[in-house]
Design brief:
0% helix; mainly beta; three-stranded antiparallel beta sheet; single chain; 81 residues
């Protein structure tokens, strides 16, 4: 699950969530959500448990806010070994 919360009480903020083909946000980016507006004091579920994805080793997920410090992101995952 990936949830994005807008903690700015007055303004909406855009979010982009990408899966990268390399660690630490490197490699090619593949968008899960792209420039989606999250209203002030609202949240967005970018990925829920019913639409799970599987990441291989040395891949990564990044979230980018349109305005610094306006969004908080929570990622819930299960490690499969």
């Amino acid at each position: 699950m990936i949830q994005v919360a807008n903690v700015d009480g007055a303004n909406a903020c855009d979010v982009t969530v990408d899966v990268h083909s390399a660690a630490s946000g490197g490699g090619t980016a593949y968008s899960l959500v792209s420039t989606i507006s999250v209203p002030a004091d609202a949240s967005l579920v970018a990925l829920d448990k019913n639409t799970a994805i599987y990441l291989e080793e040395n891949t990564s997920i990044t979230a980018t806010a349109g305005t610094a410090n306006d969004l908080e992101v929570i990622v819930s995952y299960e490690e499969i070994s």
